[in-house]
Amino acid sequence: MSLDPAAAAALGTVRIVGTGLLGTSIGLALTSLGTRVVLADPSPTSLSLAASLGAGEPDPGNGTARITVVAAPPDVTAQVVAAELAAGPSTTVTDVASVKGQVLRSVTDTGADLTRYVGGHPMAGRERSGPMAARGDLFLGRPWVICPGEKSDPTRVADVRLLAQALGASPVTMPAVDHDAAVALVSHVPQIASSLVAARLQHAADDVLALAGQGVRDVTRVAASDPVLWAQILTGNARPVVDVLHGVRGDLDAVIEALAVLVDDDTDAGGPADPGGPAGRRVLGASLVEVAGLIHRGTVGRERIPGKHGGGPDRFAVLTVVIPDEPGQLAALFADIGTAGVNVEELTLEHAPGRAVGLLEVSVVPGAADTLTKTLASHGWKIVG
Q1: Are 350 and 213 in contact (CB under 8 A)?
Q2: What is the reported pLDDT for 263?
Q3: How far apart are CA 20 and CA 325, in angstroms?
Q4: Phi-psi map region of 338: left, alpha, beta (phi>0 left; psi -120 to 50 alpha)
Q5: Which of 11, 109, 148, 263 has its CA 20 to 30 A from that of 298?
Q6: What pLDDT does residue 236 have?
Q7: Which of 336, 383, 340 is nearest to 359 (CA)?
Q8: What is the rounded CA–CA span in Å between residue 275 and residue 273?
Q9: How many C-alpha atoms does 117 have within 13 Å on its Cβ side?
Q10: How far apart are the C-alpha atoms of 381 and 340, rounded to whole Å?
């Protein structure tokens, strides 16, 4: 996917209200395509910074925008949308809030012109916030959910679709209620789970944290998100999130119960008092079934997440390469991969604690694994496993 100059040219002037991460990223992408972007924000500092970065110009107030994008915080999105609908009687108004049902209900309650409002949500973001974190390529290849209301004019829906296409996103249309249920499962509850795990690390001893590997880093990556923003998102989508959390709690309670029966309070080790006896074997067997069942269901669920090439999950071969933690080593490795004529599908880098080396996991299509292994070995790289 790439930015779409033709779609951007058809947009005319775009007004962006809110110059945080998403608003500034939209502005950077559109201005790079030659689209005139005017910016508004109650914070003069944020507005000035976004304009200085090249995301657009402060709105002169002549009301010439064809489409207005509200990129305000979730708790004031509906209020701003209603104000923009009133201020621009011919303008299409959309927003980028990650909760759609509550916004639509609140805008409806104001009596605003719902024919010109079309809710939207780009499924893109970063752990960092603010205009300095903005990127013009933030939306490339990412889903952009469009949630028309019952009264949304089809031509206004087409405007929002054109905006998503200009930004290189993939437009997806669904009702607001379906959107909110979906993001509760694939975005909001994962944020809670990540934060719960990370919170357990808050008071951990340094020597314990020194053992942390890539697994805990992966699980806690999104825990670095903005607490205020996520408090607004989660409270705004409370019902769908609670529904998912009830299911998670049921699974968690089952695992706790399965493991708790193995704990012998008289010893430091887990396990039934007589694991070799018939009763102990039955208890151990039941616990193993429960725990293994959860892990298996997780594996099946993980494999259903669409991969890089869409549709079903991608199946890649993974090579783990030991790479010295020195200047130029990554460039040298990538050059040797290029020599092999192999495309890198995914990669992750993990540093070995206390050692000046890293472990670089390189994912390639299975048919290229042997070729790449032989090429890298011939160039002196150590392949682990």
Answers
A1: yes
A2: 78
A3: 35
A4: alpha
A5: 263
A6: 93
A7: 383
A8: 6
A9: 31
A10: 13
Residues forming a β-bridge with 364:
317
**Average pLDDT per block of 10 residues along the chain, 385 residues long:** 90 96 96 96 95 94 90 94 93 96 96 96 84 92 95 97 96 96 95 95 91 86 88 94 96 92 61 60 82 89 73 70 89 91 85 72 87 91 84
In Å, what is the CA distance from 203 to each residue of 161, 193, 206?
Answer: 47, 18, 9
pLDDT value of position 254: 93
327: left (phi over 0), alpha (psi -120 to 50) or beta: beta
Cα distance between residue 145 and residue 177, in whole Å: 12
pLDDT at 270: 55
**Is 368 within 8 Å of 375 (Cβ atoms)?**
no
In this prediction, residue 307 carries a pLDDT of 66
Instruction: Please give the Cα distance from 184 to 173 (Å, whole number).
Output: 17
What is the distance between the alpha carbons of residues 228 and 233, in angstroms, rounded to a whole number? 9
Predicted confidence at residue 286, as pLDDT, reads: 84
Spatial separation of the C-alpha atoms in residues 305 and 122, rounded to whole Å: 18
